[in-house]
Each structure stands twice: as structure tokens, then as C-alpha cells.
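Input chain follows. Return C-alpha cells only.
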Amino acid sequence: MISACILAGGRATRLGGRTKPLVAIDGATILERQLAVLAPRVGELLIAIAPGAAPLPVPPGLRVRFVEDAAEGAGPLGGIAAALAASANPWLLVVAGDLPRLHGDLVDLLIAACAADLDAVAPRVRGLPEPLLACYATSALPAAQARLAAGRRKTSGLLTDERLRVRWLDEPALRAADPDLTSFSDIDTPADLAGLTGA
């Protein structure tokens, strides 16, 4: 069984400080859209928030556990570390909180690729790692904590850490599940949001 964590602790400075998961697109927030995809596929739902932040509103009847990022200002890696430490399952699917077009078939592909002899399963798009829509085993926690302690907060660096055994999923496999790779379309700016009208 696998847990899932939505990373919701970002400051969204380029989006005017708005809480990205609560941005509504066509009548549903990004958080609601993501939870609808994740809830039937995982055994536990986590949401990582900034230390001291208020929990986000979730749909009634849905069991969600909030965890605080491992350190203030640690970025997504802090959320990943906190969620790995809190996970009730040996694997954790990490999802950035600004991905409104999360595709269920892509999530299924990532989960199916997890195996006992791995520490992570991650997509690679245009040759670059996608650490914020990836699966991490709890065995990756020591490496994440060590990188945070050393001030090495770049999230993609965790996937290239020599301590981790990573299975990469490249574009042909990803496109078989999500032909236009819309799962990776994030919202960083007002222009990104405007481009998602009708998402």
C-alpha cells in the first residue's frame, strides 16, 4: 500500500501569494481535483503545509492528515521529508500542490513501478527529473534529511543522490498514460493560470 502527500507549503510569490491548492479552476480547487484522483488509489492522504500554517479545507468525509514541513523555508524537500517521516506506508506518492491536471493513469503508472529494491520512482520529461510528481520509499528519508541538514534543498538533487536506487520513467512510457503530459502542467504565474481556462 502507498500513501500520497500533496505539497501545499509553498509561498507562491509569483502568484501574488495565493495558496495554490485553493485556486479554483472551472468550479473546483486544485486540491479538490487532486484529492479526487488520489483518494481511490492510495491508503492514506497527507497534506504538507508550512510550519504553523492553518490546515486547508478538504471535502467532507475525506480523511486527510496534515504534516508540517520539516523546517521553515526548506522548500518542497522539507515537505517530502516530513511526509516520509509521517507515512503509515512504505511508499509515498508526492504531488506538487499546483498541478491541476493530474491524470489518474499516470498516477497508476508511477504506483505500479514501485518495488522493494528501489528508493524512488520518478518521471523524466525532456531529459529532466520531475521530483514533485514521483514516488519515494521511506528508505529515502535518511538521504532527504541529510541533504536538508547540509543546506542542499534542491528537490531534484534527492533523485540524483548516490544513496538512492531510482527507477526512471521516460517520456514514451509517460505518454502512454498521459499523452499530452498535462499532469506536469503547473501554475507558477497569473499567465499559467489564465492558460488553464477550461482545464
